[in-house]
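Protein modeling request. Please complete all fields; requests missing the sequence field cannot be processed.
Requester role: graduate student
Desired output: 3D structure, token encoding
Chains: 1
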Amino acid sequence: MKKTELSFWLLLWALALYAAAYPFLKPAPVEDIASLADWQMPSKLEALDAADQRKLLKRLAYPVAMPELLPVPDFEQYKDVVEKKKAFFDYLLPFIERENARLLHIRQQIIEVQQKLQQQELTVEEYAFIFSLYDEFKLDYPDVDAEGFRLLLSRVDAIPADLVLIQAAKESGWGSSRFALEAYNFFGQWCFKAGCGLVPQKRSVGKYHEVAVFPHVAAAINSYFYNLNTFYVYEDLRQLRAKRRAEGEVAGHHLVTGLLRYSERGQDYVKEIHTMLKANTKHIDS
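Delivered output (286 residues):
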């Protein structure tokens, strides 16, 4: 056999081996279970056998890995305003996208379970999945039925990244506030137990709130998503989102009016967020 012919057959053999092994060489999807917050852990886990426990945890896991947890950058170092804004958005965006990836991953599974129920009975694990989500998203609802799915899908949905970024910019002074630098608090989130956070220097007499402290930026963004997706004062925002979702895509400017109760400034706050969105979309998309 000639050398060139031997080389051809060796190459063909190698290609055949690679083709056979390829399905096993592809990286498995990320299933980041370890970074679930306590309130994200399924409440019905102990009711399941070991195999179903693994399946339920896999359902609820983050489908993308945790980005690198870095300290808050010194955004004041940027003399160019456009560079400063881009650095601010680049710092926060991976964590926002991660939260949205999990929400959309879970949302798709809810829809699949909903469709299955129209044809056949659900498994014990599927019921545990839905009831665990009722608990995670603070829904006091007793049944797995059409209304339960409607309520759940109104809460288990993404928040447009542009809206999250602009609120973070507004609430943290583009990452320069004391609370952003000392507590990773980019959204002005409060807590109400003595010692739970940082006491605002201008807190009014008779007020007892503190500004929440987070261990890292991922926790702060996670808490913000939980707030908007579960707290009763943002029901209008969730209804706006559900309406837009039924009609097509959801963008940040569709939901701004749902933030009316985010700030004591009310309508003035909504107008400011809308103005900031309009002015900074080009920097977010660049």
